[in-house]
Amino acid sequence: MLRTSKFLIPILLFIFVIVSSCNHENDWGYPPINITHQEYKTRNVIIIVVDGQRYSEGWGDSTHQYIPRMAGILSQEGVVNTSFYNMGGTYTLAGHTALTTVIYQTINNGGLEYPTNPSIFQYWNQAFHNNPIKSWIITSKDKLAVLGDCTGSQWKGKYTPSVNSGVDGLGLASGYREDSLTLKTAIEIMKKNHPNLVLINFREPDYSGHTGIWKDYIEGVRKSDEYVYRIWQFLNEDRNYKNTTTIFVTNDHGRHLDNVADGFASHGDDCEGCRHLNFYAFGPDFRKGKVISIYHEQIDISVTIAELLGFTLPNSKGKVMSELFGNR
Asked: In degrees rounded to 5, what are phi and psi of residue 44?
């Protein structure tokens, strides 16, 4: 009996170690997240998505007539990249999913499907054991509430951010909220909760672009430009965010070129108009007053955010946008 126990105990211990190791790996569901302890000034990151703005009405227009705030003020304080692209599905949910999960996915565009993979919000919350109120998804479009979670078996319902989407922030099926109200809501949330990681979606100019009325589409571009400026202004004046906050401003998708299908009224294919996006970045660790033309994609934004906030994103093919950084 003693002889049997002598051999049995080491075997049982070995099995226990193997099982524990497997369970630990399953808790991640992906390769481990590493804390990198980078020494950056950035403590907060805000991603602003101007929905469905074509590059030709943004940085692609040499006059910048429709984005006076971005071109006249913000460009002097940050970096513009004229070679930024969506290389996945060129529609709302696919674009936002690429931005947040760093993986291109074909996904239902009506908000009837969650992303398969966890988002940067879930990775960040898990890595640093954050309170959910420290990360927010705030969107005009109600269907974007699905960005708050994923279907991955080991991540579903875990480490999720706070979400305020659609009318009254009620989420899916509540309807699209006016961008002016989303702006107000975002600033109120930042004043109250001081979140460190936020995504803000403005429904314009996509919402008006689909009407096919050019002047309404352009008005949507102009209003979004103003709203981006107001957020930038708030972040530079608020004591919790001043000098410690990085901002990314981009699009989920563009729109058809004028000679493709019905032109600016639609999007969804791989034409240059749908793929080529506007990109701007500002922050205490970034260069100022620079215009670059270095190829990058949507999946590179969250990888760069992870670099700034001191952790790694597993299972991503995205690259750190090192050209943005100063003194490197």
From this structure: -140, 145
